[in-house]
């Protein structure tokens, strides 16, 4: 057998360590494990959604409606777009995969910020495309345009707010980038954490409709973060209908589960849980900022449901992540992103207190 | 924007019409709709599995364990293989996609029987590969070897039992094909409906272990059919570890949901529901055979949970499918496969009686 040569250069995604693994490997009781590694919603599953799951538990044998008629109608209403503007993925991740597969090949390149969501690079490399990154982790206009003019990438990724750093790019700056780039480049505006940025400062709020005037721009959203449905794997892309139509050709049938379809429909109609999630987050993140200030630790001003602590040469992010892990606290080491930093999901009051207690002891 | 040229030739999968659509389009009450189109398990969801879903409804916010440690352990035990021999997909469909993406390109070709699972062709065309089919819908040794020697395909698909026709290829004949082909070709043995074939006649029973001696062969299985979990999207591929390792490079993280992971673990450990499903099926399919004989309708001897009725020039499959649909009975017209035939999922006693009543009136 001969495998495609692109496989030689593919690294796979490093997922946040699951609680089960820490229980198995370190013998810590599940109740003592605090996972602040995957930006899961600390409130848990919306009780209204859990109810929907329970009441549909007996239709697990039925394939979902592959047209996703109801979910698209609900999203179309929420965002004031047409159903032909929408494609559903198993997480917005899968929409990224559709985009890669629809436009990239071994002669193409993609452009993204210096530190950003790892799957952009992985999906691009799966297609054999070259990957260019700007110097900064922020989305800086000059850096993007310099690289854009040099490489003419077929896809540009704008992750706002940005993961795993937490910074955001304003709507004005995003529009400026779109206007400055040619319409032969697909521009992905990944708003996976948009609910948190929009609630913090209106100038960072970007809605699909803000971008629908451009035929080469696609907005990505997800139910995984503020909606608290990471485990259900539902996200979406919103763009002009001709672009959506092409992406559909890479969509496998039944790409979300029957239960995922039901819960996403309900979640789209109910915004109260998102508001509750954002409110808890806004209250708790202040503790992380205060703790960092008190301990002279740098951090990136966050527009997401996590915060990135930046260490100087006295602290090593990998050592700290390991020490926390052995105590049952799972956070994300950003060493593999070239940063001496850790990313911590803002948890519940209790989870955050547990983090501070262990972290204080480790850095003492 | 310029899309990859393979998109020009891609047709998308035509899913069985969902009940919701028939309700919407024909104004038929949901309770009066009988769907025998997607080979869903007519018993419904295993009550033990529905219980697992209900008891895990509150962890929808958590990502699944991306290592799938427990599920692989359960499958490894069931099939007496190692966990390194296993890859999990969102349905065995997704494993087909991994295979296509790992080995195919625009210079490659694939080979399959004349009528078989539509996704083989769709995934191959997504990669720009050429698609060759044998004359017969059965997997005939001479036809396969003639085409194999002529085209040297990079992937050969053996669907046994075969969908959408229902015929099966014996283990002896599958092994003969594998032995006759070179090890530079990946041979996919798709056993999505294997539980039904194995229960009908031992000579059709193929287990992953029967094939694990070949480094180029992968066995596919699914929880969608006999296990009654079509809506949960879980399937798997079992092969030698080096092949699995390459396919993993195309696997996106979190490719099944948290609930799907839980139910698949439970389903692997519990075979009683499969036995119950097969028993109902074996009892009810006799009615379809008797009905066909009484009405001089041809059919393919079925090793799956559906039956294919073959019509002569007096009956038109598309007209019959339409007439049934308007009465709320959804079956699959095989006209798009070049056959004047319909595929009917074997339902419950009541569903089957409803089908016979409407079908009798239509052909009267």
UniProtKB/TrEMBL annotation, chains A, B:
Q: What is its EC number?
A: 2.6.1.9
Check the record and name the InterPro entries matching this protein: Aminotransferase_I/II_large, HisP_aminotrans, HistidinolP_aminotransfase, PyrdxlP-dep_Trfase, PyrdxlP-dep_Trfase_major, PyrdxlP-dep_Trfase_small
Instruction: Please list the residue ranges annotated as the Aminotransferase class I/classII large domain.
Output: 31-355
Q: What pathway is it annotated to?
A: Amino-acid biosynthesis; L-histidine biosynthesis; L-histidine from 5-phospho-alpha-D-ribose 1-diphosphate: step 7/9
Name the Pfam families for this protein. Answer: Aminotran_1_2
Keyword Phosphoprotein set for record? no
In terms of superkingdom, the source organism counts as: Bacteria
- State whether keyword DNA damage applies: no
Query: What are the record keywords, sorted?
Result: Amino-acid biosynthesis, Aminotransferase, Histidine biosynthesis, Pyridoxal phosphate, Transferase
List cofactor names only: pyridoxal 5'-phosphate
Catalytic EC class: transferase
Record's HAMAP family?
A: HisC_aminotrans_2 (MF_01023)
How does this protein assemble?
Answer: Homodimer.
Q: Which family is annotated?
A: Belongs to the class-II pyridoxal-phosphate-dependent aminotransferase family. Histidinol-phosphate aminotransferase subfamily.
| The protein's name | Histidinol-phosphate aminotransferase
């Amino acid at each position: 057998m001969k495998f495609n040569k692109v496989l030689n250069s593919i690294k796979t995604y490093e997922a946040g360590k699951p609680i089960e693994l820490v229980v198995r490997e370190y013998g810590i009781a599940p109740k003592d494990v605090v996972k602040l590694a995957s930006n899961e919603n600390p409130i848990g599953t919306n009780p209204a959604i859990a109810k929907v799951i329970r009441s549909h538990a007996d239709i697990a044998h039925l394939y979902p409606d592959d047209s996703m008629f109801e979910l698209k109608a609900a999203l179309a209403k929420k965002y004031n777009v047409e159903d032909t503007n929408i494609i559903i993925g198993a997480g917005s991740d899968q929409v990224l995969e559709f985009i890669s597969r629809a436009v990239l090949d071994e002669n193409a390149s993609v452009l993204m910020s210096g530190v950003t969501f790892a799957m952009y690079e992985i999906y691009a490399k799966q297609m054999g495309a070259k990957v260019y990154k700007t110097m900064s982790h922020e989305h800086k206009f000059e850096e993007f345009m310099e690289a854009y003019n040099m490489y003419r990438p077929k896809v540009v990724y704008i992750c706002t707010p940005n993961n795993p750093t937490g910074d955001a790019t304003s709507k004005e700056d995003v529009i400026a980038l779109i206007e400055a780039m040619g319409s032969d480049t697909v521009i992905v505006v990944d708003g996976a954490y948009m609910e948190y940025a929009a609630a913090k400062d209106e100038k960072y709020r970007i809605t699909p409709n803000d971008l629908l005037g451009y035929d080469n721009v696609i907005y990505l959203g997800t139910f995984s973060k503020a909606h608290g449905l990471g485990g259900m794997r539902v996200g979406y892309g919103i763009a002009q209908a001709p672009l959506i139509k092409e992406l559909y050709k890479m969509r496998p049938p039944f790409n979300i589960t029957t239960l995922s379809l039901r819960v996403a429909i309900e979640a789209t109609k109910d915004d109260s849980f998102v508001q509750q999630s954002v409110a808890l987050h806004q209250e708790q993140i202040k503790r992380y900022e205060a703790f960092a200030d008190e301990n002279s630790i740098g951090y990136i001003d966050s527009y997401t449901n996590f915060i990135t602590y930046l260490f100087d040469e006295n602290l090593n992010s990998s050592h700290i992540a390991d020490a926390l892990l052995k105590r049952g606290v799972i956070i994300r080491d950003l060493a593999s992103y070239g940063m001496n930093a850790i990313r911590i999901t803002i948890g519940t009051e209790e989870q955050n207190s547990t983090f501070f207690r262990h972290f204080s002891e480790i850095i003492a």
